[in-house]
Amino acid sequence: MKRIVCSLAIVLSACGFAQAASSDWFETEGARLRLVTEDAADADGRMKGVLEIDLQPGWKTYWKDPGASGIAPQIDISASINVESAAFSFPAPNRFREGEEVSTGYVEPVALPVTFKVGDPEKFTAIDADILLGICKEICVPVQAKLSVTPGGEVGAADPVIAESYGRLPSAASADFGLAGLRDEGESLVADAALPADAQGAELFVVAPKGWLLGVPVLDASGERPAFRIPVIDRPAATGTIAFDYTLVAGGKAVEGQFPLP
């Protein structure tokens, strides 16, 4: 039996599936949540994890910039042991209408990658994560959950959700697929785009910096090169150089990058 278990572990490792530790499921109206992490950090203290958001049919949750309404996912790991930081990454989102508002997020169950930075990979680590996010059906409900994981404790079987969720993240933008420049025209920002030749239904999602409120970008393909016009609903009175994070989706593929506004 021991030989069989060891052989199975070797096969799973070869497939890229890490041994996993998991919190219990937290259940609430419309969804359930759990946190899954690798069993150990790498030599640099980096540990991959995933927040699984198992939505019930008809329920939605939100992207890092949810729009005028909605709650972006947040994580607080201050109660953890030997954990310095945690940061979400996001797969390409969808847009959906909520009354008169257009929001950005996910309409099906989603696994959000979360990367932890461990202080000392050789020391005991315990993750106590306070999660805040919004889920929505007819009304939006803020959800607060405390999820606890002890990597290296009771280790579970290799869990493909970690590798799969990181594999769904957008690639880095490039000269062939991404935004090529940005112009400020007062009531709107105009971003030139490089899109794949076979791209269909291109959509741009922009993270508005603090103090900015942006409308839904509209693609204009009538010029020499395609461009997105991004309505500016509100902005700070004075700004210096500022960077906008974005995700660009076209032809079933997604890239992410950053463009500066002088």
What does this entry look like structurally?
- It comes from Mesorhizobium australicum.
- Residues 43-148 form the Thiol:disulfide interchange protein DsbD N-terminal domain.
- Residues 1-16 have low confidence and may be disordered.
- The protein has helices spanning 2-14, 160-167; strands at residues 20-22, 26-28, 31-38, 46-55, 60-62, 74-76, 83-88, 94-98, 101-106, 110-118, 127-136, 140-149, 171-172, 178-184, 188-194, 203-207, 213-214, 218-220, 227-234, 242-250, 253-261.
- The protein contains two helices and 21 strands.
- A hairpin with a 7-residue loop joins strand 3 and strand 4.
- The protein folds into two domains: 2-169, Thiol:disulfide interchange protein DsbD, N-terminal domain (Immunoglobulin-like, Sandwich); 172-261, Immunoglobulins (Immunoglobulin-like).
- Strands 1, 2, 3, 4, 7 and 10 form a six-stranded antiparallel sheet that branches.
- The protein has 262 residues and is mainly beta.
Please render the helix and strand layout as text:
Blueprint (H helix, E strand, L loop, with lengths): L1 H13 L5 E3 L3 E3 L2 E8 L7 E10 L4 E3 L11 E3 L6 E6 L5 E5 L2 E6 L3 E9 L8 E10 L3 E10 L10 H8 L3 E2 L5 E7 L3 E7 L8 E5 L5 E2 L3 E3 L6 E8 L7 E9 L2 E9 L1
